[in-house]
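Help! Submission page says 'invalid entity' but I think these are all valid:
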Amino acid sequence: MSDTSLRGKVAVIGIGLSAVGKVPGRSPLSLAAEAARNALADAGVAKGEVDGVLSSHAFASPFHRFSVAFSEYFGIRPTFSNTLQVSGATAATMFSIGAAAIHGGLAKVVLLVAADSLMTGLTPDLALRSLTESRDQQYEMPFGIPVANTFAMTAHRHMREFGTTPEQLAEVAVVHRRHAARTPGAQQTAPITTADVLDSPMVTTPYHKLDCSLISDGGAAFVLTSAEHAKALGIGKPIYILGCGECYTHEHIFLMPSLTTTGAVESSRRAYAMAGYQPSDMDVAGVYDCFTGTVVMMLEDLGFCRKGEGGPFVADGQMSYGGQIPSNTHGGLLSFAHSGMPGALFHFHEVIAQLRGQCDQRQVERAALGLVHSLGAGFATNATTILGTEGTL
Amino acid sequence: MIASEDSTRKPLPAPDADTTTFWRGLRQGKLLLQHCRRCRNVQYYQQATCRECGGDELEHRPATGRGKVHSFSVVHRAPGPAFKADVPYAVLLVELAEGPRMISTLTGSDPEDVTFDMEVELAFDQVSDDITLPRFRKA
């Protein structure tokens, strides 16, 4: 590893959630501040120690500079801050950019924080913006293409090329719901069957309503600092950032190089290389699950199974307890919550809690290495993070 | 950012320096693709330079208008009020005979009958004085 590698240089020392699910009457700033308070309390760090803040954009907030508005609201004056935007992939980039800022000396203690209230906080104007934002006005929007549509076309092509079935996609939703049932505060916990998924209304083929993720309110926050500072603070169980990788292959779905093999191959390859681990070394994963088919494709592209075998892999129980890679043990975007940009931060929260051994009845035994993959915009953006306990350094 | 003046009206493209020629072509019944004289790349969408080699020797040539369905998704839940009356409609990812892919929608037949690799051809849909949308019908 070169001197500039981020491997093991930065640790996550605090994690926190806001109220999650249906949380009426609370602004994204209020939810973000709650999550941040919880993360700082978890770390045992005072807010005055925070000198860096990274956020993502919130649809239900008028503040484009969310990180700046947050800092004022939270009563801090950071000397490093930005509001990041690579769609759903933003979550993992918050960790890599935060780590790089610490390793590069731009900040000592970085707070990653994001929140949104997509379920209850959108005015009609902001709702429309969230539907249409960043779709191309010349080549896409005139045809009436829902956000789900680009993801649907990739899954549909996957079914065509590899024989993935609607039942296998439905099984993804069933597994997530089963996981969410063990998670305090999860938005949807009532058990479902594959028949329930297939009988739910069609949204855009091949996706039924229950193939689609939730719409939620909520936020999450994390405290990062250098491995040395974490030691000096006496942090009980720091979780280290071992590897990071990103890949951006296109913007328009019609310029996606392949509908069935995504930039996650390259983003995860880079993350594994930095960490010095293989897919088979991972004990637990957080896999972006905006739609059921997304999970099938990601399990392949992240290297947990071979290309085309994601459907049978899920149907065989390999993404749950006792399988090859227990994934989204909190229930994911499909059943825990999906509040937009913060969605994948819930995956980080879960994987870090797993690595700390704090998941009670959801705990994956002896979890020491974890991967989180976040993505967005019809696979236009991909970012992977690998995390580990002290023993994995 | 898209202005949210009226969510019940379908959004129309606003031609700019990159795309005026493209939209004028459609008004005249031609789907123009850009052919790079230097590296022979054929590109959709339009801009001043070739996305492969960076050259600016681009020539607009009409496409044959023939292609096949690389993937598709039939929309049952509309993305906003403007498209509510249209559901169900089939969004197509069409691979043109010249190579590039483009997004459009099916016209003239039942969306439930779309299949992978189905042969399609251009259908010009004039939606305003200035704008004609490139849509596809079963060939």
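Support: the input was valid. A stray whitespace character was the problem, and the output above is from the cleaned input. Residues 20-27 of chain B form the longest helix (8 residues).
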